[in-house]
Amino acid sequence: MLARLIDGSARNPILVILVVLLLGAWGLWAGFRVPLDAVPDLSDVQVTIYTEWQGRSPTLIEDQVTYPIVTSLLAGPKVKRVRGVSEYGVSYVYVIFEDRTDLYWARSRVLEYMQKLTGKLPAGVSPTLGPDATGVGWVYQYALVDESGAHDLAQLRSLQDWNLRFQLESVPGVAEVSAVGGFVKQYQIEVDPNTLAAYRLPIKTIGSLTEKTFANPTSP
Question: What is the DSSP letter of 216?
Answer without folding.
Answer: S
